[in-house]
């Protein structure tokens, strides 16, 4: 074999191996059926997108809808009426209101009530006509009907209480005190049946209240992102710079950087334990019980999550457990750290020879963001693609239907063709009802997200594997191909898209099954107390998690093998797995130690950026507070920047992880195929041969 040429891919074939049929020109397309299946699936995703865009309207999710199907603050008739008012909150006393809406007349109003009022049949206690809250199109000041008739006909509300605007809905504060203040002296209202118990009103308000609060928090987070987007982007840029600086330093001083990471990780963990424990003890000693309204308890509890002693206790426990687990792992693997550092050093040389590999992960990262954005957009459009559903509503006095009429309260109706054969019955908007096939489209959209994300991830792995394999199988490392990454991208796109689609499809199917089991487990925990059922569900979830991790391990090495030899997915998976099993001890004590050391380095980057963002936004650094925009929840940018830093660091460190895995697999193949003789020289670098006590006989001569 000619020195400087790699087996089967970069030069002449190995004559003593019957599996090698020739050089790179003999490479052919692999797994063509999966290639066609993947693009057919993408075409189907395009059909789903067309339906979602044609029928969806996100304004239905952002703005409340009144009983006539008008979107408050959006439709022309109610453009200036941005708040939704509920006529009778007693009818909201059901946990289903978050999904189906509250079955009571709802109207868009310009402002929420600022005082308490109820109609008891006495003119002296009645509101002035202009103070009544009525349906759109009903003018109590010019109506020929009396106040009693307007209320009995369901055209105006017969009570309202002081309310605030919450998620564009009028929600009473101090629920029980307001309700009791109105109804503590009356048991029934003239012309009406007896009122329901005060507790039902309170329950109804609470259900609406919880739904509105959750939407209020979501809107607050969204507004924080809007006002702080440039600072969040700056945080991502800082994360990229820190990650890139770490990788560059790892290229030149790998040994120092690994030990520096271990020491820094221990220091950050110690500081985190001290800080969280100190905050917990301080808050516990100074914080007294607080009394506030339901809204303040919820929103301030979220807004000031960092002021709760439980928050810091949980963080202290998490940091301590992570530190102890990593410490135990380091103690058991301490003898293998030097060899692992040497392997990382070889990966550093490979990265240094092919510097474009450091920037290549940006491409898969952008592609994954694009697919994630498409998924979120289609999910919102599909969620708002339902058609309006209308139900029959009758006031407290009854529907007033003539004998033989089939109209019943809460029955579905068509607002355009509704024939009012009852005196008081009306057909009003109830909720947005989804078509029977829309849930299937949601499932298709979720599976498309999984498959595309795993496909892009697999594409990046195979491209990097091809580039690093070209470095390893070059006998003289100084002659590494100049455009190794570009050549690897070309080979992957031309020959192996089907193999990538095959491997990513397997992982996507397993992930989809995991999601289904997570849903089943959630239902089991809600509807049963059987510990046997919960235990079985937990075991199934654990087994599926292990299966996914195992398949990802198989796929990763199959991509490396495919990048080297050009075999299809099944053959590559079989051969690579057999090779690893023949060297299981080396895999366990060497390859996984390097993965752990790289994980420690990644956690150091995440910890540095995350702690810095916390001190910036929490107010501990007073000299920059005046330059920051107002925030609803200061934890919003901290969490987003920390999570973003994790993914950015993962993108950079994945280059080193892929380099280590590729070089390790090539090293095992090199050891099995070659013996250091002049006919079969080792392709590993001199440093790696020195560590493993191997040498080429040609060099001895």
What descriptors fit this protein?
701 residues, mainly alpha, two-stranded antiparallel sheet, 20 helices, elongated, disordered N terminus
Instruction: Tell me the fraction of residues in β-strands, as a range.
Output: 5-15%
The helix count comes to 20
Level of helix content?
55-70%
- Distance from first to last alpha carbon: 19 Å
What structural class results from the helix and strand content?
mainly alpha
Average pLDDT over all residues = 76
Low-confidence stretches: 1-25, 184-198, 288-302
Instruction: Please provide the count of β strands.
Output: 9
Major sheet attributes: 3 strands, antiparallel
Shape: elongated
User: Which strand order does the major sheet show?
Assistant: 8-7-9
Q: What's the SSE pattern? A: HHEHEEHEEEHHHHHHHEEEHHHHHHHHH
Spatial extent as radius of gyration:
33 Å
Function: Choline transporter.
Organism: Meganyctiphanes norvegica
GO molecular function: transmembrane transporter activity
Transmembrane segments: 32-53, 228-249, 256-277, 312-333, 340-359, 365-383, 446-473, 493-517, 596-618, 638-659
Commentary on this structure:
- This protein is mainly alpha-helical and 701 residues long.
- The protein has 20 helices and nine strands.
- The protein has helices at residues 32-55, 59-62, 97-100, 147-152, 175-183, 198-252, 254-286, 294-303, 309-332, 337-353, 362-383, 438-472, 484-495, 497-527, 531-565, 569-582, 584-617, 635-673, 686-691, 697-700, and strands spanning 83-86, 106-109, 117-118, 159-160, 163-166, 169-172, 387-393, 412-413, 426-433.
- The strands form four sheets. Strands 8-7-9 form a three-stranded antiparallel beta sheet, with no helix packed on it.
- A hairpin with a 2-residue loop joins strand 5 and strand 6 (169-172).
- Helix 12 packs across helix 13 (484-495) and helix 12 (438-472) crosses helix 14.
- The chain is elongated, with a radius of gyration of 33 Å.
- Residues 1-25, 184-198 and 288-302 have low confidence and may be disordered.
């Amino acid at each position: 074999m000619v020195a400087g040429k790699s087996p089967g891919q970069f030069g002449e074939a190995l004559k003593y191996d019957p599996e090698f049929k020739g050089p790179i020109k003999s490479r052919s397309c692999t797994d063509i059926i999966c290639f066609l299946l993947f693009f057919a699936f993408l075409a189907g995703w395009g059909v789903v997108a067309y339906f979602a865009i044609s029928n969806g309207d996100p304004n239905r999710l952002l703005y409340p809808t009144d009983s006539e199907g008008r979107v408050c603050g959006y439709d022309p008739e109610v453009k200036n009426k941005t708040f939704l008012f509920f006529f009778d909150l007693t009818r909201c006393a059901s946990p289903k209101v978050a999904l189906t809406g509250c079955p009571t007349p709802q109207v868009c109003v310009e402002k929420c009530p600022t005082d308490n009022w109820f109609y008891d049949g006495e003119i002296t206690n009645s509101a002035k006509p202009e103070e009544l809250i009525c349906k759109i199109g009903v003018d109590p000041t010019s109506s020929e009907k009396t106040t009693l008739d307007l209320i009995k006909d369901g055209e105006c509300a017969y009570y309202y209480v002081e309310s605030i605007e919450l998620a564009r809905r009028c929600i009473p504060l101090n629920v029980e005190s307001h309700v009791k203040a109105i109804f503590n002296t009356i048991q029934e209202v003239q012309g009406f049946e007896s009122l329901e118990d005060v507790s039902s009103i309170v329950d109804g308000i609470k259900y609406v209240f919880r739904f509105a609060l959750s939407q209020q928090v979501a809107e607050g987070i969204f507004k924080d992102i809007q006002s702080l987007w440039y600072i969040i982007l700056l945080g991502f840029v800082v994360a990229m710079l820190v990650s890139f600086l770490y990788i560059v330093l790892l290229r030149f001083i790998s040994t120092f950087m690994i030990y520096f990471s271990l020491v820094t990780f221990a220091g950050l963990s110690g500081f985190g334990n001290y800080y969280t424990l100190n905050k917990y003890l301080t808050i516990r000693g100074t914080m007294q019980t607080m009394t506030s309204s339901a809204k303040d308890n919820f929103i301030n509890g979220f807004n000031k999550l960092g002021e709760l002693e439980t928050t810091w206790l949980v963080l202290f426990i998490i940091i301590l457990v992570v530190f102890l687990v990593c410490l135990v792992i380091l103690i058991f693997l301490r003898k293998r750290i030097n060899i692992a550092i040497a392997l990382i050093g070889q990966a550093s040389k490979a990265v240094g020879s092919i510097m474009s590999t450091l920037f290549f992960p940006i491409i898969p990262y952008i592609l994954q963001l694009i697919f994630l954005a498409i998924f979120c957009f289609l999910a919102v459009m599909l969620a708002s693609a339902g058609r309006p559903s209308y139900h029959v509503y009758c006031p407290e006095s009854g529907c007033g239907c003539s004998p033989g009429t089939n109209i019943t309260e809460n029955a579905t109706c068509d607002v355009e063709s509704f024939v009012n054969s009852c005196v008081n019955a009306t057909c009003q908007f109830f909720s947005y009802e989804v078509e029977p096939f829309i849930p299937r489209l949601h499932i298709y959209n979720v599976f498309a997200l999984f498959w595309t994300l795993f496909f892009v991830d697999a594409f990046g792995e195979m491209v990097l594997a091809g580039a690093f394999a070209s470095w390893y199988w070059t006998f003289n490392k100084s002659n590494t191909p100049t455009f190794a990454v570009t050549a690897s991208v070309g080979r992957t796109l031309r020959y192996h898209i089907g193999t990538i689609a095959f491997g990513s499809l397997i992982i996507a199917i397993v992930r989809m099954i995991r999601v289904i089991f997570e849903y089943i487990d959630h239902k089991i925990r809600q509807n049963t107390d059987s510990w046997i059922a919960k235990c079985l569900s937990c075991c199934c979830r654990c087994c599926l998690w292990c299966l996914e991790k195992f398949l990802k391990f198989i796929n990763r090495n199959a991509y490396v093998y495919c990048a080297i030899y050009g075999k299809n997915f099944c053959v590559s998976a079989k051969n690579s797995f057999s090779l690893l099993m023949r060297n299981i001890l080396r895999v366990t004590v060497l390859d996984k130690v390097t993965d752990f050391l790289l994980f420690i380095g990644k956690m150091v980057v995440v910890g540095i950026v995350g702690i810095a963002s916390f001190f910036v936004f929490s107010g501990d650094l007073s000299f920059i507070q005046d330059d920051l925009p107002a925030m609803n929840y200061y934890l919003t940018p901290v969490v987003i920047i920390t999570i973003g830093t994790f993914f950015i660091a993962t993108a950079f460190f994945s280059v080193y992880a892929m380099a280590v895995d590729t070089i390790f697999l090539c090293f095992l193949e090199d050891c099995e195929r070659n013996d250091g003789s002049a006919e079969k020289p080792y392709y590993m670098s001199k440093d790696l041969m020195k560590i493993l006590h191997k040498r080429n006989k040609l060099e001895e001569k």
